[in-house]
UniProtKB/TrEMBL annotation:
It comes from Geococcyx californianus. Its main location: membrane. This is GLMPA protein. Signal peptide: none annotated. One of its GO terms (cellular component) is lysosomal membrane. Belongs to the GLMP family. The keyword Cytoplasm does not apply. It comes from the Eukaryota. Pfam families: NCU-G1.
Length: 229
């Protein structure tokens, strides 16, 4: 729903730049990128107004992939999937940082019915031949309040990548904040209202988690101007 940019300095407080509200972006037609054979689509957007020119050579994109059967994804981090799974990849490419030590974060919002309980889980393991240096797997799970059965989930490794053809050495550290109730108002024209109707907030609850990119090696984006998660 939002992309944050902040300056990760040694000062006591981080400096936040004006937020990129994705609801204010202008998005390309999906007809240009929809691939019925590969079951993929790409939503690419830029701010409707860009007075600073930070998006003059860049964009934000969400790449969506569906699957016909189970297996393991080929690109890193090579997550397992089933025929009922889909993948959403966040890509920040060519956007000019507004500071010399800029970091970025993505706010991920979820919408569930009132009787659904959401939990953010973290599992650590060193036994992973596919991403041997990434020890944390996170899952945002929606469970039934009545019987604790899993209704849906969003799963990711605690890593992003600074290359269009990612290798292990292109890894960028990710950090997930706590899951919180979203106390902001969804834009009237948002895709959430289009799908769920006007009952969001009464029949449905909205929660959000922030995913930040970049740790000690956070300068990868400054150098390559590319980040995928």
């Amino acid at each position: 729903s939002q992309v944050f940019e902040y300056s990760d300095t040694k000062a006591p407080e981080e400096r936040f730049y004006p937020t990129y509200e994705l609801s204010d972006f202008s998005w390309d037609s999906i007809n240009r990128t929809l691939n019925h054979t590969a079951l993929t689509a790409k939503f690419r957007g830029i701010p409707a107004t860009d007075p600073g020119g930070t998006f003059s050579n860049g964009s934000v994109a969400f790449r969506v992939t569906a699957y016909e059967d189970g297996g393991r994804d080929v690109p890193l981090p090579s997550l397992l999937h089933t025929a009922n799974s889909s993948k959403v990849e966040f890509v920040l490419a060519g956007v000019a940082p507004r500071g010399n030590s800029s970091r970025f974060a993505l706010e991920v919002a979820t919408v569930e019915e009132l009787e659904v309980v959401q939990k953010l889980r973290s599992v650590r393991s060193i036994d992973d031949e596919y991403t041997p240096t990434i020890f944390e797997m996170l899952s945002l799970v929606a469970e039934s309040q009545n019987d604790s059965s899993t209704l849906s989930f969003l799963q990711w490794k605690a890593t992003a990548y600074g290359s269009r053809t990612p290798r292990h050495e292109d890894s960028i550290q990710c950090r997930s904040e706590n899951l919180q109730a979203a106390n902001w108002t969804l834009p009237v024209s948002s895709i959430v209202r289009a799908y769920f109707g006007d009952d969001v907030g009464s029949t449905y609850t909205v929660s959000a988690v922030n995913i930040s990119f970049g740790g000690e090696e956070g300068g990868v984006y400054q150098e390559k101007r590319y980040l995928s998660w």
